[in-house]
């Protein structure tokens, strides 16, 4: 029986085409067995991903190559090839000595704004998120909707109102004018609530309460260590957010010594264009590379934490 | 009977919430209220001939002034065009890349994930600097390459600036959203996909009619955050403006605010315009949430 059917089946197909109604079905079934086109072959998929990777990596390659060039080579040689001579050490030396070594100061400022700021913001965020998840208090959800409102208010729309208020209280052009706004991270509270719900089992708290441990002690000694991976995630998010911020420092600061790296690079770049300081072109390029390199390193080392934060909001 | 425990919880809640909400009040609520107050006043040179200035109450005058200013309204038009180009390209691109990674056909998946995400580790301003260098004639290998192919494009002209800015944002955000979509795709139950296979669905059909609908919430959330981000557009056009003043100092609403505040010292107008932007963003994100919720229910 089976033999005849397998022998019979191919025979009529080439000779008499199947009735038109049945054809798409037959084709679809065939598509499930093997890929319908070259694009969906292993090589095709990998090639498409490779093309996209070229797009993401070429600008960074340009940055890396340009940082090794002399000023003549920057303008005179192909951007995606090495220059005539490797000038990286001279460029780095120039970068750290330009304007009395102000670049190092910018780096240090950025570490303070972004590092210390994000650290405190994460502590406050985790504390609040834990309270929202695990503690009973009146008006909880109404208060939480205020947090969500904070998530929705666009950050840059706050720059001018913050500037106006800072002008009123005398914080314009001070360290605090940029540092204090970085301490508030509403999305971090939201994330911390999610993390607390998934990392801290209620039974653990029940047991601690049975043992008569105070609520605050329980948070510090038991819950906080359990949320620690989430803490790292929240820290990384706020760290990059502050490191990225540009509009706020731009309006808040006029003293070069208070600049974060972003603003300093922008000023160098602008003066290269407007005041005819072409050497600043190269400074901005090398300065960008030096600022980006540690960020990329941090990201590569801490991938796991990134992903858990990015997907905590999306996969619920 | 649980009252001592309840009191303890309440007291600890106050302790844990106070730092966040204290600072939240200081750097979010207070500035918004203060800006709202300032937006009701305008500075006039006094008519007595002493040459001094005084603050005059104008009610909603600054809001009317901002909304009737063509430069401000054009900024929103620019954002609309920017969104129309950027969001489909970026979200679509991220979705396609995530589906390719998830198709089971890709090699070196971890490498691709990393390489595609990498631009997101670059601060926005530095990304803008790199790209504007790549847009600058005489410096850019891209322009040389296009020119040798007979294409002559001025990336920094008024007409192209929106696309140039959108490209920078696509570069920064596609990989980020791809990672989110890919993670969501991996959470799609294998049984569902196996069932589709048994029913004879091909790879493309499975992707379009099963995988994409299943990760719809993730996509909707990404669109929401992208819209909020787009209204704030500032860094990229600001850097482009530096390289070529062709696009004008009020190209986007945020650039308009900055110009009003620091070139014209018109703080009442700047405050009003800032609040209008924040309001617009809030309304838009409300609408997007509403639409996407309806979409996921149907």
Give a brief description.
The complex is a heterodimer of chains A (316) and B (298). With 316 residues, chain A is an all-alpha fold.
Fill in the CATH topology of chain A: MetI-like fold
The helix/strand series of chain B, from N terminus to C terminus, equals: HEEHHHHHHHHHHHH
* Number of DSSP helical runs of chain A: 16
From the alpha-carbon coordinates, what is the Rg of chain B to the nearest angstrom?
A: 25 Å
Overall shape of chain B: it is globular
Mean pLDDT across residues of chain B = 87
Q: Percent of residues of chain A in helical segments? A: over 70%
Membrane topology (chain B): Multi-pass membrane protein
Transmembrane segments (chain B): 12-37, 76-100, 112-134, 214-234, 269-288
Protein name (chain B): Sugar ABC transporter permease
Main location (chain B): membrane
Tell me what the structure shows.
The complex is a heterodimer of chains A (316) and B (298). Chain A has 16 helices and no strands. Chain A is mostly helical. Chain A has one domain (88-312): MetI-like (MetI-like fold, Orthogonal Bundle). In chain A, helix 4 crosses helix 15 (279-301). By secondary structure, chain B is mainly α. Chain B has 2 domains: 1-33; 62-297, MetI-like (MetI-like fold, Orthogonal Bundle). Chain B is 74% helix and 3% strand. A two-stranded antiparallel ribbon of chain B has the order 1-2. In chain B, a hairpin with a 7-residue loop joins strand 1 and strand 2 (53-57). The two termini of chain B are 46 Å apart. At the A-B interface, helix 3, helix 4, helix 6, helix 7 and helix 8 of A face helix 1, helix 3, helix 4, helix 5 and helix 6 of B. Chain B: InterPro entries: MetI-like (IPR000515), MetI-like_sf (IPR035906), UgpAE/MalFG_permease (IPR050809). Chain B: This is Sugar ABC transporter permease.
Please supply descriptive tags for the structure shown above.
A: mainly alpha; MetI-like fold; B: 298 residues; 2 domains; two-stranded antiparallel sheet; 13 helices; 2 strands; globular
């Amino acid at each position: 029986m089976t033999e005849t059917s397998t022998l019979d089946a191919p025979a009529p197909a080439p000779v008499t085409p199947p009735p038109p109604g049945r054809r798409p079905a037959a084709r679809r079934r065939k598509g499930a067995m093997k890929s319908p086109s070259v694009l969906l072959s292993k090589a095709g998929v990998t090639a498409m991903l490779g093309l996209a990777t070229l797009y993401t990596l070429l600008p960074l390659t340009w940055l890396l190559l340009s940082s090794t060039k002399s000023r003549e080579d920057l303008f005179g040689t192909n951007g995606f090839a090495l220059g005539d001579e490797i000038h990286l050490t001279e460029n780095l030396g120039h970068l750290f000595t330009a304007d009395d070594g102000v670049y190092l100061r910018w780096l240090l400022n950025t570490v303070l704004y972004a590092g210390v700021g994000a650290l405190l913001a994460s502590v406050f965020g985790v504390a609040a998120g834990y309270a929202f998840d695990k503690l009973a208090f009146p008006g909880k959800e109404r208060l939480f909707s205020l947090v969500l409102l904070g998530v929705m208010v666009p950050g840059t729309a706050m720059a001018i109102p913050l500037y106006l208020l800072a002008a009123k209280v005398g914080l314009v052009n001070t360290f605090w004018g940029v540092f204090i706004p970085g301490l508030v991270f509403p999305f971090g509270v939201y994330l911390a609530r999610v993390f607390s719900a998934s990392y801290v089992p209620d039974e653990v708290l029940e047991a601690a309460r049975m043992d008569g441990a105070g609520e605050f002690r329980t948070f510090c000694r038991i819950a906080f260590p359990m949320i620690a991976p989430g803490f790292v995630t929240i820290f990384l998010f706020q760290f990059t957010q502050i490191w990225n911020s540009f509009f706020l420092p731009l309006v808040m600061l006029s003293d070069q010594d208070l600049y974060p790296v972003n603003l300093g690079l922008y000023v160098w770049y602008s003066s290269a264009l407007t005041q005819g300081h072409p050497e600043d072109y190269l400074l901005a390029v090398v300065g960008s590379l030096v600022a980006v390199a540690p960020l990329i390193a941090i990201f590569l080392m801490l991938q796991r934490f990134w992903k858990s934060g990015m997907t905590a909001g999306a996969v619920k | 009977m649980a009252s001592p425990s309840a009191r303890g919880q309440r007291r600890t809640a106050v302790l844990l919430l106070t730092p966040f909400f204290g600072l939240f009040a200081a750097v979010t609520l207070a500035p918004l209220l203060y800006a709202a107050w300032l937006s009701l006043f305008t500075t006039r040179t006094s008519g007595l001939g002493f040459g001094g200035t005084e603050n005059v109450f104008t009610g909603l005058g600054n809001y009317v002034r901002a909304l009737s200013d063509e430069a401000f309204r054009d900024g929103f038009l620019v954002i609309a065009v920017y969104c129309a180009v950027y969001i489909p390209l970026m979200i679509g691109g991220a979705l396609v890349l995530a589906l390719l990674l998830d198709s089971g056909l890709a090699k070196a998946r971890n490498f691709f994930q990393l390489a595609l995400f990498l631009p997101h580790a670059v601060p926005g301003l530095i990304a803008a600097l790199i790209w504007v260098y790549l847009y600058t004639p005489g410096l850019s290998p891209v322009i040389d390459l296009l020119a040798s192919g007979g294409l002559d494009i001025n990336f920094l002209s008024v007409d192209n600036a929106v696309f140039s800015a959108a490209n920078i944002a696509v570069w920064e955000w596609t990989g980020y959203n791809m990672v989110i979509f890919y993670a969501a795709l991996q959470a799609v139950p294998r049984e569902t996909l196996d069932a589709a296979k048994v029913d004879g669905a091909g790879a493309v059909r499975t992707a379009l009619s099963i995988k994409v609908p299943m990760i719809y919430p993730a996509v909707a959330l990404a669109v929401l955050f992208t819209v909020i981000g787009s209204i704030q557009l500032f860094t990229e056009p600001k850097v482009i403006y530096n390289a070529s003043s062709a696009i004008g100092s009020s190209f986007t609403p945020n650039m308009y605010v900055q110009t009003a505040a620091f070139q014209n010292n018109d703080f009442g107008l700047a405050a009003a315009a800032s609040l209008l932007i924040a309001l617009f963003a809030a309304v838009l994100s409300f609408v997007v949430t509403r639409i996407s919720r309806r979409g996921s229910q149907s």
